[in-house]
Amino acid sequence: MRVLEYIGTRELRWRDVPDARVVDPGDAVVRPVAATTCDLDRAVIAGRTPFPAPLQLGHECVAEVVEVGDEVSGLVAGDLVVVPWHISCGTCATCSAGAPSRCLSVPRYAMFGLPLGGAWGGLFSELVRVPWAAANLVKLPHGAEPEAFASASDNLTDAYAASSRDRRTRLVRRCSCSVAPASGCTPARSPVR
Ligand SMILES: [Zn+2]
Ligand SMILES: [Zn+2]
Questions:
Q1: Quick one: pLDDT at residue 164?
Q2: Residue 99: what pLDDT?
Q3: Contact status, residue 85 vs residue 153, Cβ threshold 8 Å
Q4: Which pLDDT does position 156 carry in this prediction?
Q5: Which SUPFAM superfamilies does the entry link to (predicted)?
Q6: 128: CA distance to ligand 1 center in Å?
Q7: Are 137 and 82 contacting, i.e. CB atoms less than 8 angstroms apart?
Q8: I need a surface site. Which of 20, 47, 116, 146 has the fewest CB within 10 A?
Q9: Which residues have a beta carbon within 5 Å of ligand 1, which is an ion?
Q10: Which of the following CATH numbers is that of domain 2-151: 3.90.180.10, 3.40.50.1440, 1.10.357.140, 3.40.50.10490?
Q11: Which residues contact 58 (CB under 8 A, 6 or more apart)?
Q12: What's the DSSP call for residue 168?
């Protein structure tokens, strides 16, 4: 399969890598069918971030489920899903409290498309492995237009974090982020109120 990588200022390339596959029984493998770019992608490509190359890009997409692990419920091959940018387990204390962007089972800011909490790959790829698929993927209704929902991966998850009752996920008032002010991408550098 191919993945889109940032390899230096204003330089991108498609690179061949082994196909994504189910590794753990809670995984799904999905095929992105509609993806959108974020302001942060533009900053990375322009060389305005500290993230080193090479870097697999993409954290907003709608995808088709290709395969699910034995423990994944509620999803089958062929389903159309939104793939949220942040990765969470769905069962730890903070996930259970409704704050999946602060999941305790992964490094903070674990996400697709940026190397903030480990290397999870990017969504500008032909295939993507999604851990804890039942918790992370959001199934779309039959007939939904993928292009209409692709940016929900980031925009709606950020809005949720900003409006969450969990004080730690509330809107960052003075954010240096070049993305949405409530984005989970950068609050580590900003005072949380
Ligand atoms: Zn973003
Ligand atoms: Zn969790």
A1: 62
A2: 85
A3: yes
A4: 82
A5: GroES-like
A6: 18
A7: yes
A8: 47
A9: 38, 40, 154, 179
A10: 3.90.180.10
A11: 4, 32, 35, 41, 112, 113, 122, 123, 124, 125
A12: G
Max CA pair span of the chain = 44
What number of H helices and E strands is found in the chain?
5, 8
Domain ranges of the chain: 2-151
DSSP strands (E only) in the chain:
2-8, 11-16, 28-35, 55-56, 61-68, 80-83, 128-130, 138-139
Alpha carbon 66 to chain centroid, angstroms: 18
CA 95 centroid distance within chain = 16
Nearest Cα to Cα of residue 28 among 61, 77, 62, 92? 77
Residue 99 CA to ligand 2 center (angstroms) comes to 8
Handedness of CA 132, 51, 62, 152 (dihedral sign): positive
Ligand nearest to the CA of 91: 2
pLDDT mean by block of 10 residues, the chain; 193 residues: 98 98 98 95 96 96 98 97 95 91 92 93 98 96 93 83 56 38 36 28
- Give the DSSP letter string of 176-192: --SS-TT-TTSGGGS--
Asked whether the bond before 115 is cis by omega within 30 degrees of 0, the reply is: no
Distance of CA 179 to the CA centre of its chain: 14
